[in-house]
């Protein structure tokens, strides 16, 4: 057990011969008691300060641990938010790229379809145009041949003889009859021309999925019949 100031104060010594001076010993003990008491108080103060410091250290240590834990939690939360944000951004980017690719593909397909349809229509129109030109050339050639044939018929000697005989007979006919004879060749030619014009008509027919315009021309038999009738 530690020695206390009271123990020093109450300590009694036996008196013997040639011993120490009691007054000096008591005075010294009093000084020791005083100093020892001061040391004890200082020690208590230091212990209290040490205890307070230890409590503060523990408080700050606990606070440090709490802060570190909070920092770790915040860091984990931040990392999680960052990962989620990066994942969402990546998904949004991928979706946007996919949508853009789909739109581009659709636009390309529509463009190709439009170009294909336009090319097909252009080819069909070209074929129809060439067919019409060919038929027009054939019609023109046949019409030219027919007109030349009719013109040759009109210029034939039979017509001249007929006209001459009409002039000779006009002296014996009434003026009205003579007028009818003069107009008869013209009326016949006009009726033949009208029949020729009516025989040229246009129709549309389907050939291998394509439409084209067909011109129907008068047959050679009809021309021959007209020539025979004219003769």
Automatic annotation (TrEMBL):
<feature type="compositionally biased region" description="Low complexity">
    <location>
        <begin position="191"/>
        <end position="206"/>
    </location>
</feature>
<feature type="region of interest" description="Disordered">
    <location>
        <begin position="170"/>
        <end position="231"/>
    </location>
</feature>
<keyword id="KW-0175">Coiled coil</keyword>
<dbReference type="InterPro" id="IPR007793">
    <property type="entry name" value="DivIVA_fam"/>
</dbReference>
<comment type="similarity">
    <text>Belongs to the DivIVA family.</text>
</comment>
<dbReference type="InterPro" id="IPR019933">
    <property type="entry name" value="DivIVA_domain"/>
</dbReference>
<keyword id="KW-0131">Cell cycle</keyword>
<protein>
    <submittedName>
        <fullName>Cell division initiation protein</fullName>
    </submittedName>
</protein>
<feature type="compositionally biased region" description="Polar residues">
    <location>
        <begin position="170"/>
        <end position="190"/>
    </location>
</feature>
<dbReference type="GO" id="GO:0005737">
    <property type="term" value="C:cytoplasm"/>
</dbReference>
<dbReference type="GO" id="GO:0051301">
    <property type="term" value="P:cell division"/>
</dbReference>
<keyword id="KW-0963">Cytoplasm</keyword>
<keyword id="KW-0132">Cell division</keyword>
<dbReference type="Pfam" id="PF05103">
    <property type="entry name" value="DivIVA"/>
</dbReference>
């Amino acid at each position: 057990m530690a020695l206390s100031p009271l123990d020093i104060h109450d300590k009694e010594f036996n008196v013997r011969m040639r011993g120490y001076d009691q007054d000096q010993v008591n005075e010294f003990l009093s000084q020791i008691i005083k100093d020892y008491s001061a040391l004890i108080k200082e020690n208590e103060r230091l212990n209290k300060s040490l205890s307070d410091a230890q409590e503060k250290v523990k408080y700050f240590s606990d606070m440090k641990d709490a802060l570190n834990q909070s920092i770790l939690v915040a860091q984990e939360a931040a990392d999680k938010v960052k990962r989620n944000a990066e994942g969402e951004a990546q998904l949004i980017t991928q979706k946007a790229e996919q949508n853009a690719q789909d739109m581009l593909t659709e636009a390309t397909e529509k463009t190709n379809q439009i170009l294909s349809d336009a090319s097909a229509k252009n080819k069909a129109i070209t074929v129809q145009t060439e067919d019409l030109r060919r038929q027009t050339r054939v019609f023109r050639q046949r019409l030219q041949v027919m007109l030349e044939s009719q013109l040759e018929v009109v210029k034939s000697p039979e017509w001249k003889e007929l006209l001459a005989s009409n002039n000779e007979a006009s002296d014996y006919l009434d003026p009205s009859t003579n007028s009818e004879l003069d107009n008869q060749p013209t009326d016949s030619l006009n009726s033949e021309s009208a029949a020729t014009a009516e025989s040229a008509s246009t129709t549309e027919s389907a050939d291998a999925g394509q439409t084209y315009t067909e011109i129907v021309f008068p047959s050679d038999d009809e021309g021959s019949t007209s020539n025979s009738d004219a003769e």
